[in-house]
Specification:
Blueprint (H helix, E strand, L loop, with lengths): L5 H4 L2 H13 L8 H7 L4 H28 L2 H18 L5 H18 L2 H8 L3 H33 L1 H19 L13 H4 L3 H9 L2 H22 L1 H6 L5 H17 L4 H7 L2 H16 L11 H26 L6 H26 L5 H25 L5
Helix pairs in contact: 2-8, 2-9, 4-5, 4-6, 4-11, 4-18, 5-6, 5-7, 5-9, 8-9, 8-14, 8-17, 11-18, 12-18, 12-19, 14-17, 16-17, 16-19
């Protein structure tokens, strides 16, 4: 079991970041967003376009906002991101389809300002020895927030309705903004900005991309995003098709998230017993292939949450190892830019999936599209992990 020593509790940014992670992911609406849009009369194609615009917005602005965060102010970037998220939720209150599309655009833009900036302040406060430990703690906080909001989200929506639920989420975002304003920014380390001083946005991105390990791990993020972003986005709607109520769906999601996140505490023991190379070679591909079972014809209801849980457990085991390897390979002076590249690859994978889904949504069932996407993900992950192992980039 991991313990946080007293010598670490005084670091203000670590505590603030963990509070930020909890509040920014505590959203009653987040697990029911696809259901929310369908209740407004949106078709599968329109819902796919909404998610596509969200991911396109992230794709276009990730690198510029990450560069601004690295070169100027990570705290300012975080504040700007929270303000944009609050505006995006305000537009969700509208029934106008154009304003709903604008809401998803602003949400994506807001996320680009947040991604990498505040996490960089967090990582800069840690040494490599504590990085995996606090990554496990962060993931537990992250999944606890998702679990609690999912468990209570169904009840809140059922009792108050979607309109009031969005208003409540806006209030929570306001509290999150207040927390972001409490971050302490440190003066730049002498010489740390030398790499960026004469670089433009894309030359800084190329500099970050030049690391072979980082490049392959970014491709792993892309492969996962091509299917798993959609798996999570449509999961609540998929369970609703089985006849589950909103409260039941929220409880199922909550139990799965909490149970799987607890496995993160066993990662140090697992990585000590098994080689990291083996873990990163086997678990990502296994998770993608396992998830396909959810979407097979006539799959019983009990199989769906069970498979989803097992996939989450596999991810909880290999994610901290991958994260430590990724952070270890990043140059500190381009940390936010590199983390933005990571988000960009996730957006690119999601954009490609939702682009395909918006075109095929009226021709093929969603489960068929997801099976095809998961097959592509498993194939790509197999190639990437093989390259990592053969080039001895995993120790």
């Amino acid at each position: 079991m991991i313990k946080i020593g007293k010598e670490h509790t005084g670091n203000k940014n670590i505590v603030i970041y963990l509070v930020f992670v909890f509040l920014s992911n505590f959203s009653f609406l987040s697990s029911f967003l696809s259901v929310f849009l369908w209740r407004k009369g949106a078709s599968l194609s329109f819902v796919s376009v909404c998610f596509l615009i969200y991911q396109l917005s992230k794709f276009v602005f990730e690198i510029p906002t990450g560069f601004v965060s690295d070169k100027y102010s990570r705290k300012f970037s975080g504040v700007a991101g929270m303000l944009l998220l609050i505006c995006s939720y305000g537009f969700l209150l509208s029934d106008d389809m154009a304003l709903l599309l604008l809401a998803f655009f602003l949400k994506g833009l807001g996320i680009t300002f947040l991604s990498g900036s505040l996490e960089s302040l967090f990582v800069d406060s840690l040494d490599q020895k504590r990085l995996m430990k606090y990554n496990v703690v962060e993931r537990l906080v992250f999944y606890s927030a998702l679990a609690l909001s999912a468990a209570s989200g169904g009840l809140v929506i059922q009792f108050f309705g979607f309109f009031d639920t969005v208003v409540i989420d806006i209030v929570i975002l306001g509290l999150t903004l207040a927390i972001v304003c409490q971050f302490e920014t440190k003066p730049p380390v002498p010489g740390s900005g030398a790499v960026l001083e004469h670089m433009g946005v894309f030359s800084a991105a190329r500099y970050a991309f030049s690391n072979q390990t980082v490049c392959l791990l970014l491709l792993m993020d892309f492969a996962n995003a091509f299917s798993f972003v959609a798996v999570e986005d449509f999961y609540s709607a998929f369970l609703e098709d089985f006849g589950l109520s909103g409260a039941a769906i929220g409880l199922v999601i909550a139990l799965q998230l909490i149970f799987s996140s607890l496995f993160g505490f066993f990662v140090p023991r697992i990585s000590a017993r098994f080689s990291r190379s083996g873990i990163l070679s086997v678990l990502p591909v296994s998770g993608a292939l396992l998830t396909i079972l959810m979407y097979l014809p006539y799959a019983p209801l009990v199989l769906v949450p069970l498979v989803f849980l097992l996939q989450q457990i596999l991810f909880a085991v290999y994610a901290p190892i991958k994260y430590q390897l990724f952070q270890k390979s990043i140059e500190p002076q381009v940390r936010a830019t590199t983390l933005s590249l990571q988000s960009l690859m996730v957006s690119l994978g999601s954009v490609l999936f939702y682009g395909v889904c918006s075109m095929l949504g009226d021709l093929l069932a969603l489960r068929v599209i997801l099976i095809l996407a998961l097959t592509v993900t498993a194939t790509m992950l197999s190639v990437v992990t093989t390259l990592l192992r053969k080039r001895q980039l995993i120790s």
